[in-house]
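Weekly structure sync, notes
Attendees: PL (lead), two postdocs, one rotation student
Agenda item 3: pending single-chain targets
PL asked that the sequence for the first pending target be pasted directly into the notes so everyone works from the same version. It is reproduced below exactly as submitted, 131 residues in total.
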Amino acid sequence: MEMKLELIAVPVTDVDRARDFYVKIGFKLDMDQRVDENTRFIQLTPPGSACSICLGEGITTMKPGSLGGLQVVVASAAEARKYLQGKGLELGEVDVQPWGSFVYFTDPDGNGWAVQELPDYSANPDLVKAG
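Predicted structure, written out during the meeting:
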């Protein structure tokens, strides 16, 4: 049986501010729909991703800013850092680990993201590449 992770709810306080933030850093706005008086659904997708995030009103019971560990993969953590800094994000240096290089940021509510450059498996023979 095939299972695909395709949507992750991100809890936010101000949906317009959050939508604008994600669009500013390059996510594609797929949908912004008022479903009824209590529900508004916004879907955004990182460039090149098969998995989207959603935010809105009446979408999740999680506390705004409580989500951590969201991760996207890029070809170059250094280039991602430069790109995100150009969009106004304050970032630390690239964190180089044996399992990849990382840049971290939070959205306006404090939901935590990691941007990972995968390791060079040929240079790290002790790492096992999945797949």
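Discussion points:
- The chain is about 15% helix and 35% strand.
- The chain has a mean pLDDT of 94.
Action: rotation student to compare against the earlier draft before next sync.
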